[in-house]
């Protein structure tokens, strides 16, 4: 369906909902195409392609709100969609904070963020990429088996129309390549590791050979892993895992959680929660960013925000509903699909680089732990308690000494945030990014 046809269809749905008794309404369409390929030991294991299109209609009658969705775009199905939505809205309890965005908050300019790669890769192209990635991984000395390599590509077209006068349409793409292999044998022990790359444009991906080689190298480096005694030491988080700490911050400043009082940062607005000099940024307008968006899911204008400035928390991530609950204005962070109302989410979110190199960061550590992989979901968003299984390398005398595994890293995010130090190695690759981090005084639970 062409751009004008999609927007026309959504506009017609909103108009029919208003005629059927809705005081306000909005409609969203999401069309998706995805292609994925997987190989293991050189043999094709999976090749899948899927296409789908869904429409979601939200209607409001007073402060009552309902949302229904359908993948059937026939006139009969769309008529029933409107009828069901209006009927449900009359029956549900009132939500005092429900409503569309105020017209004064709507985006007036939609930037071209280069979020859509016009070139769709063929299945043969993806197959060639995964074979190159796995071959490169298996060629690393010490690699003895493979869990396989995968490549994927997807495109989503999003269109939105609301009765407050806003309408927009844009498309996003993403591509990825990954590989996972094993090193060692039954006698010396076996270790597994992986690597991956993802980007909006396929041309921006790292080469499959680089991904495979790094996966193999990581697996071999972990051979001979030991356990260590329980202790409190400095812990250094590799960028692959430090991103998780930034992700915990995203969850803790989500406006919906703040409004419910279910986050450990619920009363920390304007407070110093990181060391002075730390800055954390949410940037929805980064060109070719994995989470870039010209406006949010309610049509509200988006802008770059320093969420943490000089260590101080400056804002929550708010959609219209959570903003009304907190007596604030939306920050343009609404995200939505076709089956549920909007809710807050981050865009391109990252911690800025620090001043020290990774070598300098590790260099003065007598005994410490360099984390390369974390396991489990042991983060309590209400209290900030943090406890996760981990693997990586022991640091002795300022240098990486030997691999370690089967240990747990524990602390509390309030203290961890306050004491962390970022290195200067930030690379913006994904939707959430972070440099190498050092946090002193964490508990390592081992033997």
Topology of this structure?
Layout: H1 3-19, E1 24-40, E2 43-61, E3 64-70, H2 75-91, H3 123-138, E4 143-162, E5 167-185, E6 189-199, H4 208-221, E7 231-237, H5 239-252, H6 255-260, E8 280-282, E9 305-309, E10 312-313, H7 320-326, E11 334-335, E12 343-344, E13 349-351, H8 358-363, E14 367-375, E15 385-396, E16 399-412, H9 413-419, E17 421-422, E18 432-433, E19 437-445
Parallel strand pairs: 7-14, 13-18
Antiparallel strand pairs: 1-2, 1-4, 2-3, 4-5, 5-6, 7-19, 8-9, 8-13, 9-10, 11-12, 14-15, 15-16, 16-19, 17-19
Q: What does this protein structure show overall?
A:
It contains 9 helices and 19 strands. It is globular and about 75 Å long. It has 447 residues and is of the alpha+beta class. The mean pLDDT is 95. It has helices at residues 3-19, 75-91, 123-138, 208-221, 239-252, 255-260, 320-326, 358-363, 413-419; strands at residues 24-40, 43-61, 64-70, 143-162, 167-185, 189-199, 231-237, 280-282, 305-309, 312-313, 334-335, 343-344, 349-351, 367-375, 385-396, 399-412, 421-422, 432-433, 437-445. The protein folds into 2 domains: 3-219, PmbA/TldD superfamily (PmbA/TldD fold), CATH 3.30.2290.10; 225-447, no CATH class. A 6-stranded antiparallel sheet has the order 3-2-1-4-5-6. It has a 5-stranded mixed beta barrel with strand order 7-14-15-16-19. Strands 10-9-8-13-18 form a 5-stranded mixed sheet, covered by helices on one side. A hairpin with a 2-residue loop joins strand 2 (43-61) and strand 3. It is 23% helix and 37% strand.
